Amino acid sequence: MRWSVAAAKQRLSELLRTAAKEPQTILSRSRPVAVVIDPETFEEFKAWQTARRARTLAETFDELRALAAPDHDVLRLPRRRDRSNAFSRKRA
């Protein structure tokens, strides 16, 4: 449900009761300024936000350094073999 700021002030108890069932949007001049949600939904959101937090560049480089450490197995590349190149042949 959508509430104007004035209606939300006047009917705060009702706003809180309905927020327990579904999120309630508060509008100011037809623009959303707040959403009232139940505490469980908010805790779920905080947990999701924490898990989703982007790694910093430094953390990414630390992970790459750990992967490139000498104690890890190194991929062995096969010896290179020259292949024929159709573009290098001269035409008659």
Strand and helix layout:
Blueprint: E1 2-4, H1 5-10, H2 12-19, E2 24-28, E3 31-36, H3 39-52, H4 57-67
Parallel strand pairs: 1-2
Antiparallel strand pairs: 2-3
Which descriptors apply to this entry?
single chain; 92 residues; alpha+beta; YefM-like fold; 3-stranded mixed β-sheet; 3 strands; elongated
Outline:
With 92 residues, this protein is α+β, with helices and mostly antiparallel strands. The protein has a single domain (2-67), classed as 3-Layer(aba) Sandwich (YefM-like fold). The protein is built from 4 helices and 3 strands; from the N terminus they run E-H-H-E-E-H-H.
Secondary-structure-derived class: alpha+beta
What fold name stands as the CATH topology? YefM-like fold
Q: Note the overall shape.
A: elongated
Q: In order across it, which strands form the biggest sheet? A: 1-2-3
Report how far apart the termini are: 81 Å
CATH superfamily, by name, is: YefM-like domain
What's the quaternary structure here?
single chain
Taking pLDDT < 50 over at least 5 consecutive residues as the criterion, the unreliable ranges are none
Per CATH, the architecture is 3-Layer(aba) Sandwich
Largest pleated sheet = 3 strands, mixed
Chain-averaged pLDDT: 87
